[in-house]
Design goal:
single chain; alpha+beta; Translation Initiation Factor IF3; Alpha-Beta Plaits; six-stranded antiparallel β-sheet; 5 helices; elongated
Length: about 270
């Protein structure tokens, strides 16, 4: 019986065997790596899609609602002033004191109560007259007595009464009072209540718009993401020339006005 010859395995032999195995393993490893990467990318993509859908395309559904109402002012503020001139401060003060009494009596006779009128302190200033020579050249100023001025403010809830008085000061002028009347200012004392009512209506209007969009697109509304309140605007009623301001408009020159506000809502979509 012949004995088999034991052939020793050398380093070169091992290397040759390894070279024969590697080409078989590499495709498997490559496939495993690529498959794992594909699974990870697919998972990340699905999570992104789900998150995108929950957020309603990243921004959800948004709509801006508005509300407005017409109202009449319930408070009027009327201001005026009168002035006198005197050779001395004493003479001028005596004159303006007399005029103040005439103004007060005029207001009382027309139904203005004492607590509805307020007189300011008297302001005084030196009066000067410019001097010129025979050729018309200016040569300086010389003292020419004193000017005194006093202001008046009338605040009342009787808008009709004060409005009528402010338009007709003929009697004061005829009595010798140099009275200068300003345009009345009109306010509304229940403004905070009105704001709350308008905010409620504007919010409901915005939600109604979002519901219509969701129904039309077949989307299901999720949670409210944000709610932003717009600026409060008060303008003259039926005024086409009065513009809106980004900081809000507060008209005081018109008795009849329109108040408006906006509310923007943003909902997620499931």
């Amino acid at each position: 019986m012949e004995e088999k010859e034991n052939i020793p395995i050398t380093q070169n032999t091992k290397t040759a065997q390894s070279r024969g195995i590697l080409p078989q393993i590499c495709p498997v490893l490559t496939a495993l790596i690529l498959g794992g990467a594909a699974i990870i990318c697919t998972s990340m993509l699905m999570n992104a899609i789900l998150g995108f859908r929950k957020a309603g395309g990243g921004n959800g559904l948004s709509a801006t609602g508005s509300a407005s109402c017409d109202f009449a002012s319930d408070l009027i503020v009327w201001r005026g002033s009168f002035c006198v001139h005197g050779e001395t401060p004493k003479d001028a003060y005596s004159s303006i004191k007399n005029d103040a009494q005439l103004v007060q009596k005029y207001l009382e006779d027309n139904g203005v109560a004492a607590d509805e009128m307020a007189f300011s302190s008297v302001s005084i200033s030196q009066s000067y007259t410019s001097r010129y020579d025979e050729e018309g050249n200016y040569i300086g100023d010389e003292e020419n007595g004193y000017d005194l001025t006093q202001s008046l403010t009338v605040s009342s809830s009787d808008v009709d009464k004060v409005e009528s008085i402010s338009r007709d000061i003929t009697q004061l002028i005829e009595s010798g009072v140099e009275f200068e009347s300003e345009h009345p200012e009109y306010y509304y004392t229940r403004l905070d209540e009105m704001k709350l009512e308008l905010i409620e209506k504007a919010t409901a209007n915005a939600k109604e718009r979002i519901d219509i969009m969701a129904e039309g697109s077949g989307a299901n509304l999720g949670n409210l993401l944000t709610a932003n309140l717009g600026v409060f605007q008060i303008t003259a009623r039926n005024s086409a020339n009065e513009g809106y301001s980004s900081g809000g408009t507060f008209n005081t020159s018109s008795r009849y006005k329109t108040a408006s506000i906006t509310v923007k809502l943003n909902y997620s979509v499931d």
